């Protein structure tokens, strides 16, 4: 989540102008652009989106608590936007405060998951959908965001239970979307281009975390 209130990262809900972009692009001879936009908007056509059930989670054992719909954009990933990245955040606050701000429509940001210090995982946005978490529209569209309870300057907040639970979650996400388990595809918020956030901070043990993710990725289901 970082050190200050996040923005909507240039994301916007698709409106009438966006629905017209295919025709406009075709009119100027840009068939590729039109085709791309129409592919990304196909789920708006009645009856074609994937079935959804209220309270459904993507990670077994996670608890569902819905974020405000002002803090994410409905999509149908990976069919309209491919997922090839996991972005690691630290909340800069308590678990409860993170849930509260992600439910606040004025906050303008939310991640898919929050991992608590005791390893409990809450999902607030479906992986199908684009969460406003990265501060970069392209990275939002192609990633799953995971928040971790705590502060970047408090290494004691990064508990064993948190690392292990988060690693299992990241491993499952990587398996689901065939994401390579490496530091090019599992990154920190600080590494997202164009952002001014510092999380997960210098105390986040990347070597330890990546070992845990690899172990979880290869462990029997």
UniProtKB/TrEMBL annotation:
Keywords recorded for this protein, A-Z: Cell wall biogenesis/degradation, Hydrolase
CDD domains given in the database record: PGRP (cd06583)
Catalytic activity from the UniProt record: Hydrolyzes the link between N-acetylmuramoyl residues and L-amino acid residues in certain cell-wall glycopeptides
Family annotation (Gene3D superfamilies): Peptidoglycan recognition protein-like
EC main group: hydrolase
UniProt EC number: 3.5.1.28
Location of the N-acetylmuramoyl-L-alanine amidase domain: 72-201
PANTHER family: N-ACETYLMURAMOYL-L-ALANINE AMIDASE AMID
Protein's name in the database: N-acetylmuramoyl-L-alanine amidase
Organism of provenance: Streptomyces lanatus
Taxonomic placement: Bacteria, Bacillati, Actinomycetota, Actinomycetes, Kitasatosporales
